[in-house]
């Protein structure tokens, strides 16, 4: 088995069950919370991680300025394209942070990053982002859709 295949299997094992599965099993009477109302302030300061939410210290914030140097030059990268208002993205955030930490412990050369696709529209278009969150698995600069689980 090739090295990238082993890493893909490991990544799939880390992210077994999608937190999005709750939406698919929703009763008709339940209110659809896909578009949750933002209740925070408009500051650009990152939120401090709570006791139950893991730190995002191993998730690289990607922009058009650092994307090519960070992701395309890495052997392996997992990139989340997200929207700050997206409820699915908010639910994925702690699992993605856990996966980033575990992957970094496994191999420090794996880049786990995220792109605010509402701000970095050109990157979203380049990688054919149609909805949020969109995960791309990039091996030696070649991107493919990530189809594994979304829970560590």
TrEMBL record:
UniProt EC number: 5.3.4.1
For this entry, list what GO says about its biological process: protein folding; response to endoplasmic reticulum stress
Q: Where is the composition biased (Acidic residues)?
A: 27-55
Q: Give the catalysed reaction(s), semicolon-separated.
A: Catalyzes the rearrangement of -S-S- bonds in proteins
Localization, UniProt: Endoplasmic reticulum lumen
State the signal peptide span. Answer: 1-25
| Entry coiled-coil feature ranges | none
MF term (GO), any: protein disulfide isomerase activity
| Annotated CDD domains | PDI_a_family
- Keywords linked to the UniProt accession: Disulfide bond, Endoplasmic reticulum, Isomerase, Redox-active center, Repeat, Signal
- Region Disordered: list its residue ranges: 22-56
| Keyword flag Repeat | yes
Q: What is one cellular component GO term in this UniProt entry?
A: endoplasmic reticulum lumen
Q: What residue stretches are annotated with the Thioredoxin domain?
A: 37-152
Q: What is its main location?
A: endoplasmic reticulum
Q: Which NCBIfam families match?
A: pdi_dom
Protein name as it appears in the record: protein disulfide-isomerase
């Amino acid at each position: 088995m090739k090295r990238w295949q082993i890493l893909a299997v490991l990544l799939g094992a880390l992210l077994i069950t999608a937190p999005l599965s709750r939406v698919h099993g929703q009763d008709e009477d339940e209110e659809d919370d896909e578009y949750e109302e933002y209740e925070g302030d408009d500051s650009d300061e990152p939120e401090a991680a709570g006791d139950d939410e893991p730190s995002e210290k191993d998730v690289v914030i990607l922009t058009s300025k650092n994307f090519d140097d960070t992701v395309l030059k890495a052997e392996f990268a997992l990139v989340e394209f997200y929207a700050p208002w997206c409820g699915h993205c908010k639910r994925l955030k702690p699992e993605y942070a856990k996966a980033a930490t575990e992957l970094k412990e496994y191999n420090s050369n794996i880049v786990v990053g995220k792109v605010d696709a509402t701000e970095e529209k050109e990157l979203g278009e380049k990688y054919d982002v149609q909805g949020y969150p969109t995960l791309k698995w990039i091996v030696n600069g070649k991107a493919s859709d990530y189809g594994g689980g979304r829970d560590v």
